[in-house]
Design goal:
The protein is α+β, with helices and mostly antiparallel strands. It has one domain: 2-Layer Sandwich (60s Ribosomal Protein L30, Chain: A), CATH 3.30.1330. Helix content is 26%, strand content 28%. The protein contains three helices and four strands; from the N terminus they run αβαβαββ. It has a four-stranded mixed β-sheet with strand order 1-4-2-3. The longest helix is centred in the N-terminal third of the chain and has 18 residues. The radius of gyration is 15 Å and the shape is globular. It starts with a helix and ends in a 21-residue tail after the last strand. 26% of the residues are buried.
Length: 127
């Protein structure tokens, strides 16, 4: 990367979350696709500048890996993915899918963390 590129762009973490209606491949896929669409559109992301995405899911979701959905649906072959189980808390949101994406954005860009569906109450300041 050139020095000009480094001065005008920065690596940024964007958080987000959503919920699935059920523990099925189709319902999880619907939720994950909506979350990624919102992540990209709300932040005007160039998909080529997404470096990595870490997904966590609550223990009631085990029908599939969110990362596999994104790889297939969006073709993010050069993105590093990690799927993890969220730490269990009895008061947590059911069927919850969280993400943290490391992306390259223009320096000074405003960040919009998408919190959707039943996860919107996790961050009322970010919906």
């Amino acid at each position: 990367m050139s020095k000009d590129c480094l001065d005008s762009e920065t690596v940024t973490a964007i958080r987000g979350a959503t919920t699935s209606n059920k523990n099925t491949l189709k319902e999880i896929e619907n939720s994950v696709v909506e979350l990624i669409d919102e992540l990209i559109s709300r932040n005007s992301l160039d998909p080529k500048k997404i470096l990595s995405i870490t997904f966590t899911v609550t223990k009631d979701l085990d029908a599939c890996f969110p990362a596999s959905i994104v790889r297939k649906r969006f073709g993010f072959d050069s993105v590093a993915f990690l799927d993890c189980q969220q730490m269990y808390l009895p008061s947590d949101v059911d069927f919850c899918i969280r993400l943290m994406a490391l992306v390259i954005l223009p320096t000074g860009s405003s960040i919009n963390h998408p919190y959707l569906r039943g996860a919107s109450n996790l961050r009322t300041d970010r919906c």
